[in-house]
Amino acid sequence: MEITATTLRNRLLNRVRLRHLHLFVKVADLHTVKRAAEAVGISQPTATQTLADLEHLLEVPLFLRHAHGMRLTAAGDLLLPLARRSLQLIDETATYAAAMAQGSRTVVRVAAISAAMGGALGRAIPDFARAYPDVLVQLQEADAARQAALVANGDVDCAICRAPAVLPEGWSFTPVWDDRFVVVAGPAHPLARKRSTSMAELLEATWLVTPASVAAREAFDALTAQASGKVNTCNVVTASATMVWRLLSQQPLVALVPRSMVERLIEVGQLVELPWPLQLPLGPIGILAPVGEAGQALNLFIGFITGPGTPPT
Fold first, then answer.
1. How far apart are CA 23 and CA 39, in angstroms?
2. Is residue 179 pLDDT above 60, yes or no?
3. pLDDT number for residue 99
């Protein structure tokens, strides 16, 4: 008899446990049942039987077994994101339940670009947490592409970002903090001791660059387009403020980044802003949020961030 979606749904609801999904994901990540069993905390024979049970319940093979481990089948590749999502919901449930038990009454889910994390938002969040202790802020760092997916899937209530090229339907963008590009280096860099920096000196430097998905990379490409030869770059590409600081503090590198991303590091002297002869355009950081009526937690958060008490850049 042909299996139906209704039959499978009822079977999964009645017989599948979270351990089945946890093991499925771990085997996909680690490629061996032995390592997956260790990660989940069960014996290898139990893990083998649990995986076989899941494949029997679904009536599809999830993995191809070979000498070097386990590889996903087409069905396994299709179902893996759904299993991850199910486990993520369990994580969120545990997070929310723990917060409610500790006094929180509502949640606002926020995704922010790294530049916002290192700048004004990083100063505003502690103030908001003190002002509204009963609101749980679930904050995650995400670049523009990841934010677009989170918004489309309804996984965040708002995003802290720069204005997107195309607004998601039913959402609006409100600019909050001005920003600008800066060229930074570690305090020991030879250019850090100079009162002025020429374009020739910058083009001769070795650069730490950001990924193509980040606005700073486009600005870097525009800045170095006038170079007559090859521009030297570091063999690490990153948009992490922490990694930018570590690399610049240990190697004679320079980087072009939004000032908001590294402003705290500049303020405490761990990075030095170099004077440079160009100014490249950079849009403000703001809030991308749904248009119209929103929940109380989101309204509180937006009002706090955009209100007169917003920390300056």
1. 9
2. yes
3. 66
Mean pLDDT of 107-122: 88
Q: Are the beta carbons of 259 and 182 closer than 8 angstroms?
A: yes
CA-wise closest residue to 21 among 55, 45, 46? 55
Q: Output the pLDDT for position 312.
A: 43
12: closest CA among 24, 20, 23?
A: 20
Could you tell me if 207 and 232 are in contact, meaning their C-beta atoms sit under 8 angstroms apart?
A: yes
Contact between residue 135 and residue 105 where contact means Cβ atoms under 8 Å apart: yes
pLDDT at position 61 is 93
SS3 content of the chain, % helix, strand, coil (to 5): 50, 20, 30
Residue 193 has pLDDT above 70, yes or no: yes
Angle, CA 101 vertex, CA 97 and CA 106 arms, to 5°? 65
Residue 152: φ, ψ to 5°:
-60, -35
* Longest Cα–Cα distance in the chain: 81
Residue 47 buriedness (CB in 10 A; 0-12 / 13-18 / 19+): buried
Q: What 8-state DSSP symbol labels residue 237?
A: E
- In angstroms, the CA 26 to CA 19 distance is 10
What residues are paired with 233 via a beta bridge? Answer: 207
Q: CB atoms < 10 A from the CB of 119, how many?
A: 24
Over its C-alpha atoms, the chain yields an Rg (Å, rounded) of 24
pTM: 0.70
Q: For residue 103, what pLDDT is reported?
A: 62
Q: Are 117 and 241 in contact (CB under 8 A)?
A: yes
Give, as one character, the DSSP assignment of residue 59. T
Reported confidence tier of residue 104, pLDDT bands at 50, 70, 90: low
Q: Please check whether residue 300 is in contact with residue 132, taking contact to mean a CB–CB distance below 8 angstroms.
A: yes
Instruction: Tell me the two tokens of residue 234.
Output: 């570091």
pLDDT of residue 308: 59
